[in-house]
Amino acid sequence: MSLYARLSLFLLIAASAAFAQQPRPYLTEPALSPDRKEIAFVSGGDIWTVPSTGGVATLLVSHPATESRPFYSPNGEQLAFVSTRTGGGDIYMLTFASGDLKRITFDDSLDQLDGWSRDGKWLYLSSTSRDIGGLNDLYRVAATGGTPMQVSADRYTNEFFGAPSPDGKTIAFSARGIASNQWWRRGHSHIDEAEVWLLRSFDNGSEPTSA
After folding, report:
1. What is the greatest pairwise CA distance in the chain?
2. Do the beta carbons of residue 89 and residue 110 sit within 8 Å?
3. pTM for this structure?
4. Hey, which CATH number is domain 26-210, 3.30.565.10, 1.10.3720.10, 3.40.50.2000, 2.120.10.30?
5. Element (H or E) spanning 145, and its range?
6. DSSP assignment of 168-180, as one string?
7. 92-146 pLDDT, tens per residue?
């Protein structure tokens, strides 16, 4: 083998090895559209979509800030998500037909989007912005925008990941733990174990119960 051929082979092997060591795209937070034809997901701090049958992903929302937590509206006409473009993280709404992008919440701290109500009228979120102890409380805000309203706000309890029932009368949520920062060993956490709570008829001010 000539020197040129050996050099070419060496460069090819080196390039292949370097390519293999490149980090693969980090794909997280998938959300299935109501018609089940499309999946929205987060990669590189942007929001992408891909056909649910597989195929080429398309960039949907891109910004130098970080976008996360995409959720399709129940009718599939809008996408709610969190963006840090205006602070610690606010909820935005993208309308597919017009391309209109609207800011829904206006807080300095993170407003963590948890999901939609079944009728598409409300967005549920968890936030520390109004808790004197800096813990998460549960809120809901009209999908058209407005002032977030408290759903559950125990002063000494961390409350997050709210999931409303289809009829809107009950909400399940996690409490007490510290969410993704919490590690477990032999079934127990290092600080305090998270619980799942149910709040029934919360419009009437009912107290939550653990489940």
Report:
1. 84
2. yes
3. 0.78
4. 2.120.10.30
5. none
6. SSEEEEEESS-GG
7. 999 999 999 999 999 888 999 999 999 999 999 999 887 777 889 999 999 999 9
